[in-house]
Each structure stands twice: as C-alpha cells, then as structure tokens.
Specification:
The protein is mainly α and 167 residues long. The chain folds into two domains: 56 residues, Arc Repressor Mutant, subunit A (Orthogonal Bundle); 96 residues, no CATH class. The protein has eight helices and no strands. α4 runs parallel beside α7, α5 packs parallel to α8 and α7 packs across α8.
Length: 167
C-alpha cells in the first residue's frame, strides 16, 4: 500500500508541474525534480515516462471535472443555457491552465501520438458524457448530439482564446 500511496503522490506532483509548465517541459529530470525524487525512482514507480504522464493527465482530468462540477449547476437545462455556462467556465482563470494542457494533448493527438490520442479520447468522451448528463433532453441520441455540439463550440473558444482571439 505504501508504494501505491507514493505513486499517487508522484502523480499529483507531476500533475501540478504539468499545469504550471505544460507537456513540452515534461522530460524526466524536470519531472523528477518536481516530484522531489530521482528519474530512476520515477521509473521504479511508473514503468516508463508514458505511464507517468498518463497517470498525471488522469489526475488533471479528475481535478478539472471536480472543479467544473463545483462551479456549475447540476440540474438539467437547455443546450443553449449549458453552452453559455461552459463557455464562461472554461474562460475562468482558475481553469485556464487545465485548458492549456488540454490543447497540448489535442495537438499531440493530432500529430498521431498514440498516448495522447488515447487519453485525449477518454477525457473528451467523459467530458461529453458529463455534458450530456446535464442536458434536459429525453432522447439519448439527441442528448449526445447536443453535448458534442457544445463540446465543439467550447473547444473552439478555447483554441481561439489561446491564440489571443477573444470576444
């Protein structure tokens, strides 16, 4: 159990590092320094860098979802209302570092990186499912389609903000 607790602690520290520095800065030595350990110990607790990054990204996704849940209403509502709320939430300065990491994940996935494509898919699917659960629509197919539209709009707004185009 001690090893599992240490893995969790390391994943949390690496998640904090990724929020502050981004994926581009994620080489083993800086990651080890951020986790207050050696690169050898990172590889002891995680088989390879890929598994370490995956664990940290999962932590970030969990944190982000908890923050979004805490910031928003949980009652079902219209797609237009939900879209407006999510656009406002994702522009929040507290959530912006999460959005920046998400953009890096998406860019690496677009370049064909297997890890980022896989984890990006899982995170996007979970986010879409969560959005769908907040929609006041009875038909599941319609709910999923509306959630996908909201997700596309929000992701587009995040991309535009990242290059300085707002409003």
């Amino acid at each position: 159990m001690k090893a599992e607790a240490k893995r969790d602690e390391i994943a949390d520290r690496i998640a904090d590092y990724l929020l502050a520095e981004g994926l581009a800065a994620a080489s083993l030595r800086p990651l080890a320094a951020a986790a207050d350990t050696s690169d050898r110990m990172l590889l002891y607790y995680f088989k390879d860098k890929e598994r370490l990054i995956e664990a940290a990204l999962r932590r970030l996704a969990t944190r982000q979802m908890a923050m979004l849940t805490a910031m928003g209403q949980q009652e079902p509502r219209s797609a237009a209302q939900l879209e407006a709320e999510f656009l406002a939430l994702t522009g929040n300065d507290t959530l912006w570092p999460f959005m920046c990491v998400w953009l890096e994940v998406a860019a690496l996935a677009a370049r064909g990186d297997r890890l980022y494509r896989s984890i990006g898919y899982e995170i996007a699917l979970a986010f879409r499912h969560w959005i769908a659960s907040l929609l006041a629509l009875d038909d599941e197919q319609e709910r999923n389609a509306a959630a996908s539209r909201i997700l596309r709009t929000v992701e587009g707004a995040i991309l535009l903000r990242s290059v300085g185009l707002t409003g």
